Structure formats: structure tokens, C-alpha cells
Structure prediction request, 261 residues.
Amino acid sequence: MKRKLLTALIKYQWLNERAYLGNFIAGIASTIFYTSAFIVFVFLLFHRVGTIAGYTRNDLLLVFFVGQIGFFTTWQGMAEPFAEMIRKINTGEFDFVLIHPVPLKSWVTVQGIEPLSGLLEVIPPMIIISLFINWGELHITPVHLILAGVVWLCSMAMCYLILLLLAAPAFSNGESSELLHVFWGMGPQPLPYERIPTAVKFTAFSVLPTILYTSVVTAVVLGRIQATGVVIAAVAAGTAALLMQRLVWRRALRVYTSASS
Prediction:
């Protein structure tokens, strides 16, 4: 029953998006333009300098590639669903969400996913970036890849918590859409983690997980930092984030005031 409801919701989202295909054509153009502009910038930069903090042009493109994976995941899989949740709270539709026999967290996540948008806006820029990376020059081992995957998953748990905290005021006030924009101010920058100031490095495991899923993950993949300490810190932060998520959800539902009441 639960699986059928979630499947039906995704199908509805797909059909709904097809009615507004023009919006996604503009979205595709926007993401492709940004991606192309950044790649041109990287080529121009490394035409003048050979390396930056020991990173070659190929390395920096990998940082960009990894960062975009994290960006699109948080955008499509977290920020958009939370924005839709806030809209439902604001209009009173959230009352109907609460009566569905599926876990609230799963429902909120699925009901905001836009499958067509994800395919059309995410895949083309990722293909473009990958074409400019010389994968043969990268010395990536399976162990480093697995450890980087663990760090990435922990960073996603932290990003989800931050977005949940920014969306939570809607349960009591009915609106917090603008607060979600704060998250994009934390946007990932494709910078070598080793050259980031020490004080800023610590924020990657607390308030700036975008650094974690961009610079730190890439540094682990490339074997440029000692992965053991980083993985332990990431797992600790990710576990704490998962526990905090449960507490925030419970508190949010306790203070929820229906817009229809």
C-alpha cells in the first residue's frame, strides 16, 4: 500500500511536469550555460598557471564534477521537496499529507521530487563536465572511492538537517520559503580542501556540509588527505545529524498549526 502510494505520487509528478515543459527547457539552458562558463574559466585559469595548491586542471574539474553531484542531489532531492512542503503547509494541504499511511519523511521527500526536471536539467551538464575530465589520469582506488562514498552520504544527512531546520518554522508560522535560500549561500566552491583555512575546515563537519561533499570528498577520492580521521569525523557528524532530524521532525509536528483551522 505504501509503495503504491509513493509510486502513484511520482507518476503524478511526472505527468504534471510534462504540462509545463517550457520551464524545463529554460532550466536546461541555464544549467548548461553555467557549466560551460565555469569550464571555460578553468581552462583560462590553468592556461596561465600550471597548478593550484597541487591540483591540476583535471583535478579541479573533478572537484567541480563531485560538487555538482552534491548540488543537484540537495536541490532536487531535498530543497525542492521542502519548498513544496512549505507550500502545502501554507495552503492547508499538509493536513491531507498527515493522514496518508506512509512515513511523513518519505512522503515529503517523494512529493517534491520532479523526475522530468531531474533528467533534463541534471544529466546534460554532468555529461559535459565528464567529457572534459581525463579519467585515465586520475589515480582512484576502490578503497578511496568507498571511503569517499561514506563521507558523501554523511554530508547528505547534514544537508538534510540544515534544510529541515530552515523549513521547520513553517510548521508554527505557516511560511519559511525565504529561509531556504540561506542554504544556497553556503554553496560549494571547487577549492582544494588542503588549502582551506583550518577554522573553515572544521565547519565542513558542522554548518557547511557543502564543503564536505565537494572539496573533502574529492580529496579523499584522490588520496590527498588521510582518510581515516576524515571518515570518522564525517560518520560522527552524519550520525548526529540523523538523530537531530528525528528530534526536529517531532518538535515540528507538535507545534504544527493547520492553515485551515
About this structure: The chain has one domain: 2-254. Residues 4 and 235 are 33 Å apart (CA to CA).
